[in-house]
Design brief:
With 118 residues, this protein is mostly helical. It has a domain of 59 residues. The protein is built from seven helices and no strands. The longest helix is centred in the C-terminal third of the chain and has 14 residues. It is globular. It starts with 11 loop residues before the first helix and ends in an 11-residue tail after the last helix. The N terminus is likely disordered.
């Protein structure tokens, strides 16, 4: 199967059809869309964009992110190749757990009937 640099490998007949139709539209936010990354089984784990925007509005989260140690932990995860094992390790770090809990409270607030009266 012939390959052209920077294009995916496809059988010649499929590639010819793609060239006739023109290149597919590029995703708005980079080379991958959420649909490319997440399969149907991941749908239930998806957080709506509207709720994700709440993260940027949270004073509590902003205060946590002022901590240089937390910022370094997040950079380490972002740059790691094996993110899953690193995440398991960092979930033992109280500061990281505080950060994760804060994010979860923002995007998935506890239901009022489950909160005990003070």
């Amino acid at each position: 199967i012939p390959c052209v640099p920077a294009e995916r490998c496809v059988p010649p007949s499929s590639r010819d059809k793609e060239q006739e139709q023109g290149p597919p539209a590029a995703p708005a936010h980079g080379p991958w869309s959420l649909h490319d990354i997440l399969g149907e089984e991941d749908e239930q784990d998806r957080v709506p964009l509207q709720k994700l925007k709440l993260l940027g509005e949270s004073e509590e989260l902003r205060d946590l992110l002022l901590n240089p140690h937390l910022r370094q932990l997040l950079l380490t995860i972002d740059q790691a190749e094996d993110k899953s094992s690193l995440m398991r390790r960092f979930m033992q770090e109280p500061l990281f757990v505080e950060f994760a809990d804060c994010c979860l409270r923002i995007v998935e607030p506890p239901e009022k009937e489950n909160i005990l009266p003070e």
